[in-house]
Specification:
8 helices; 5-stranded mixed β-barrel
Length: 354
């Protein structure tokens, strides 16, 4: 198998790198599905490099170096540098950042044209998509379920200024031809969206075959049933690759310093233009933000959303620093206790000898 068909470029290799290049196509807890020049294989992280060193834990889409073992699980030695990367705050308390996908070209931010459409959620996805370094594209699915799409399209374009917005139906084929420009040989697209938004249906439509299980929407709330259970990379017959992700109930902010600028350019254009450099944008005279809101150039809703996400991201940064300090303190306490125990044992041994 030629790994270049999976997007590998030789210059990705490090000069001092040892091992065989491979790409992660699925993650199953502590076991990884990989593709390399020998085809599909499985791998596990080499303990010393990952659990005892500073290696970045790989996720779906990552290129890694492996020690290939034909008769068993290969050993993953190193994670190669990423072109793009999408992460969120791990929903489990105290666990920090959770990797979602790596090395993709486009982010399909998917919401369905029914009760799933949510402006606030779209803002969150856009912020994280811009932060990833890839190109965001808004996909409004299930266009066959609504008679009038104009309101949804206008709302999405208002939120995602400068981003392509497409209304499609995987069932009827409406708008599908518009996606051909993104889903091309050698390109990787990551799908992001809540459970039942139609990610699996879109994968099947793009593939031209039934490669993922699909369940019908519920009649009581127009929502689909969750089918994807883990992140995986799928290569289509035309050479394009799709990273499908499970629906996310929580989409916590992590590092979004650049992503906020991409998703909220209409807000950040006014920052730094206030009369006072330390303006809090509350009641200060000469506040560019307040003047923009009063004149109608900026909506109060957009400003509130921006403040909320920025505040959440700062909380994450502060919480992460706190957890790192706590972990370091616990290590120092454990080290001190071990030293005391060892000293006690030595003292006891000397007493017995005496």
């Amino acid at each position: 198998m030629n790994l270049q068909e999976y997007g590998f470029i030789q210059k990705m290799m490090l000069e001092e790198g040892r091992g065989l290049p491979a790409r992660v196509t699925a993650v199953h807890k502590d076991r990884f599905t990989l593709v390399c020049q020998y085809g599909e294989t499985y791998g596990r992280l080499k303990t010393k490099e990952y659990y005892g060193g500073d290696e970045v834990f790989p996720t779906v889409g990552d290129f890694v170096l492996i020690e290939y073992i034909p008769s068993g699980d290969s050993r993953i030695l190193k994670t190669l540098p990423r072109r793009t990367f999408f992460s969120r705050r791990d929903p489990s308390p105290g666990r920090g950042e959770q990797a979602v996908a790596a090395n993709f070209d486009y982010v399909f931010i998917m919401q369905s044209l029914n009760q799933d459409f949510n402006a606030k959620r779209l803002e969150r996805y856009l912020t994280l998509a811009w932060q990833s370094g890839a190109v965001p594209v808004v996909i409004l699915t299930k266009a066959d379920l609504v008679e009038e799409k104009t309101e949804y399209l206008c709302a999405a374009r208002r939120i995602a200024a400068g981003v392509d917005v497409h209304a499609i139906s995987a069932r009827t084929g409406e708008g599908m031809e518009e996606l051909a420009a993104y889903v091309t040989a050698g390109k990787t697209v990551v799908f992001l969206g809540s459970s039942g938004v139609g990610k699996s249906s879109l994968v099947n439509a793009l593939a031209g075959e039934e490669i993922m299980a699909v369940k019908e929407i519920r009649e009581d709330d127009s929502k689909g049933r969750h089918t994807t259970t883990h992140r995986q990379l799928i290569r289509l017959q035309n050479g394009a690759m799709i990273i499908d992700t499970p629906g996310m109930r929580e989409l916590g902010m992590w590092d979004v310093s650049e992503g906020l600028g991409g998703a909220f350019g209409d807000v950040e254009q006014f920052l730094g233009k206030c009369r006072f450099s330390d303006c809090k944008h509350r009641t200060e005279p000469g506040c560019a933000i307040l003047e923009a809101i009063e004149s109608g150039l900026l909506s109060q809703e957009r400003w509130d959303s921006y403040r909320k996400l920025r505040s959440e991201a700062r909380y994450t940064d502060n919480r992460t620093a706190f957890l790192l300090r706590k972990q370091q303190k616990n290590k120092e306490i454990a080290k001190y206790n071990r030293a005391r125990m060892n000293a006690g044992k030595r003292y006891g041994d000397s007493q017995e000898e005496y």
